[in-house]
Amino acid sequence: MQKILIVSHCILNKASKVEQNEADLAEEYELRDRLLSEIQKQDIQLLQLPCPEFVMYGSRRWGHVKEQFDHPFYRDTCRKLFGPVLRQLEAYAGDPERFEVLGIVSVEGSPSCGRSLTCSGNWGGELSDLEETEKRVRGLKMIQAPGVFMEVIQGMLAEAKLQVPILTMQETVSFLTCQNQEKEGK
Ligand code: SF4
Question: What is the domain partition of the chain in residue ranges?
Answer without folding.
Answer: 2-183
